[in-house]
């Protein structure tokens, strides 16, 4: 019997370690050459696969080049935002499985967030329905950390380390003048506050900046916010505040919408500024003090220099574990992280498997008990949760140009 | 005869290595304990000194804590934006020199940009006029690299490394979808394009993104810009463009002013968005493609993880050299960098001294011959100039929290 081949794809927005998960899948696949034939990648996810855009990893990244995946940002294989049809009667399914058969695919891996797990769910259900022997496994990734049934997600630790380190640096930068100032830092995470909460780690000592941290899990009240800032001036003339991009008021209106409702550009179009810019203007206007806003932006998900070594290692493990699970006959599962305590009390992580149907289209928020009563800070329990995830740094090799060396598709 | 004491201050906006220059001055001062007594720091520059806010480095940063200055962002001593009066007849001058005498100051060091060199100029001229024996030396720093009579400035190399590395990462992040997109990256540098020019290093191969780099030294033409972007789509569906915050059109109007002239916030105030946000809206409107803008913001001057080892080393050397020069009787000078070529053709830097009066209030632009003819790129000569300045990375120690350990005033 000919050995079946493996194929892997990436989908959705990248993280700093989405390529570490890819490395885990590919290197484990190659290591099992007794059971697995070729190791393919689909270029631009399932969408590119439908257009026959694939590569063979043994040719694309020979030798140590494969190792470079571990610190390369972006999605090496390219990504897509393609949602498979709800009805498994749709003709795209037989088309896909015909292609799988032509390529003799026996193992299918998809690295992504909620939407990608939806793809894993549909393909595994179609396989079950048609009696296909193909194994379909989901590899989690998201900086938002909002997947259910897993302690955390690969990508979150590095983004959290980026946020915490950068907020610590910005706080030093924002504290050089003896003059009242407010710095608003806007952080990603969509509807979940996990990433913004990590800014609490930036504090060098109890009572340090950032004084306030506002998550989308609590309703944001602009008047209370202004009072919070004024009270902070009693302790420090330089006040740093961290806000989630998704903060909203009690009515559910996003704070960033307040600006766009009035600001227009030269073409008469609404200017979509973020909530940080809005709050910067609010502070300058109402409190009459120097204000600045900083949107941390895409570096949160693509900074190689601030990859968390713990996150990178776990992302590789998740990739490897998924391949081992598929070889053991598992399908329709997502690799999950289960937190354990070692005998000495230290953090340990084990990989597990969860039914992918219970994960797709769900969102996990920061628990209410981890947000302090006044809605402007996080608890020590959260700090205990997040600290092991940001440990260690990664040595990124530099080229002759003095810059990090990354791999990319030619 | 009692030994004279040394005092050092920091002024203007911080850089990633302004504390490395401070380390150089302080460690060299302590090393010369045969000639120099105490080593003091003024808190918040000359402004804080006038309020008697000083510290003694032997107490504030004992032992290896002093070494931590080298990777700590922000200005450890705090900063100020205080301009001394033009007239040397002003009563602030005798007041300052009385304080110097009380503290038995013999050596005065000021780390900063243009404005700080103005302070060095005035204090050294007042000293000469009154026969004071105090030696006054300026230590350069600016990420803008716009000081004259020096090959480059400490702080520029690290900011350039940050810009180049981050643009390389953002380009990978922005290239994951097979769908037309434009990413505009807005870079600091005020009226000089040195920092934006460094984004050319981000290219991994000839013809790679960023496709276009616009500096304030050339007039910006929005219609030509749109044509540039459209032509780039013939080569790559994901186009990355780097712009200086200070780009302006042929009439001298800053591009960022076009938005603020119409956008207002809920208070009826002008919303000052940057030129990146303006161009993002322009591209979306006129070309009908996905557009995003990223303002690199203050991390350009405070990222510890992307400090250039070459820049850090040179900043320390400049600090040390200034102390040696003062001990040799020099005053009214700024430490400068002179580029040499080693016998094997490699880059070498030597410290020099320049009359501070020729430096303050001047600005150095990117030479016209280093900007390519169409005004949207830089030449190979610039690449040769900047490459040695971004070499090497620095190991930043991590604490138990997994984050960089910095020193700060208690």
In short:
The structure is a homodimer of 410-residue chains. Chain A is of the alpha/beta class and 410 residues long.
Question: Would you give an account of this structure?
Answer:
Two copies of one chain form a homodimer. Chain A is built from 13 helices and eleven strands. With 410 residues, chain A is an alpha/beta fold. Chain A has two domains: 4-142 and 150-155 and 304-362, Rossmann fold; 157-302, Rossmann fold, CATH 3.40.50. Chain A is elongated and about 75 Å long. Chain A starts with a strand and ends in a 24-residue tail after the last helix. Chains A and B meet through helix 6, helix 10, strand 9 and helix 11 of A and helix 6, helix 10, strand 9 and helix 11 of B.
Index terms:
7-stranded mixed sheet; Rossmann fold; 410 residues; alpha/beta; 32% helix; homodimer
SSE blueprint and pairings:
Two copies of one chain form a homodimer.
Chain A: E1 4-10, H1 18-31, E2 36-42, H2 45-50, E3 54-56, H3 57-60, H4 92-102, E4 105-112, H5 114-130, E5 135-140, H6 156-173, E6 181-187, H7 194-197, E7 212-214, H8 222-232, E8 238-244, H9 256-260, H10 275-287, E9 290-295, H11 299-302, H12 309-327, E10 333-341, E11 347-355, H13 380-386
Parallel strand pairs in A: 1-2, 1-4, 4-5, 5-10, 6-8, 6-9, 7-8
Antiparallel strand pairs in A: 2-3, 10-11
Helix pairs in contact in A: 1-12
């Amino acid at each position: 019997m000919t050995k079946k081949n493996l194929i892997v794809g990436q989908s959705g927005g990248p993280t700093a370690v989405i390529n570490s998960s890819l490395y885990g899948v590919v290197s484990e696949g190659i290591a099992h050459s007794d059971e697995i034939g070729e190791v393919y990648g689909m270029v631009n996810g399932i969408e590119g696969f439908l257009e026959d855009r694939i590569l063979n990893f043994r040719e694309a990244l020979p030798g140590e080049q494969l190792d470079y995946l571990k610190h390369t940002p972006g999605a090496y294989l390219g990504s897509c935002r393609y949602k498979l049809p709800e009805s498994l009667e749709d003709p795209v399914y037989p088309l896909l499985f015909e292609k799988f058969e032509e390529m003799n695919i026996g193992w299918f891996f998809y690295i992504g967030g909620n939407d990608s797990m939806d793809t894993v769910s549909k393909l595994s259900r179609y396989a079950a329905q048609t009696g296909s022997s193909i194994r379909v496994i989901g590899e989690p990734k998201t900086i938002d950390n909002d997947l259910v049934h897993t302690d955390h997600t690969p990508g979150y630790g590095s983004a959290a380390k980026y946020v915490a380190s950068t907020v610590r640096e910005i706080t030093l930068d924002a504290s050089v003048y003896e003059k009242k100032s407010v710095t608003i830092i806007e952080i990603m995470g969509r509807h979940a506050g996990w990433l913004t909460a990590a800014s609490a780690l930036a504090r060098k000592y109890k009572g340090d900046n950032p004084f306030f941290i506002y998550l989308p899990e609590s309703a944001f009240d602009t008047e209370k916010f202004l009072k919070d800032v004024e009270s902070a001036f009693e302790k420090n003339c330089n006040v740093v505040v961290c806000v989630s991009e998704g903060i909203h008021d009690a009515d559910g209106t996003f704070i960033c919408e307040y600006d766009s409702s009035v600001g227009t550009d030269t073409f008469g179009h609404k200017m979509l500024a973020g909530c940080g810019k809005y709050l910067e203007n609010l502070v300058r206007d109402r409190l009459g003090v120097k204000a600045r806003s900083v949107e941390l932006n895409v570096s949160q998900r693509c900074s190689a220099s601030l990859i968390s070594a713990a996150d990178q290692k776990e992302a590789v493990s998740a990739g490897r574990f998924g391949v081992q699970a598929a070889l053991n006959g598992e399908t329709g599962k997502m690799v999950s992280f289960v937190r354990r305590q070692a005998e000495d009390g230290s953090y340990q992580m084990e990989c597990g498997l969860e039914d992918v149907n219970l994960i797709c289209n769900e969102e996990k928020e920061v628990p209410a008990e981890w947000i302090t009563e006044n809605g402007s800070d996080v608890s020590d329990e959260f700090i205990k949760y997040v600290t092991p995830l940001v440990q260690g740094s990664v040595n990124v090799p530099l080229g002759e140009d003095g810059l990090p060396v990354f791999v990319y598709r030619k």
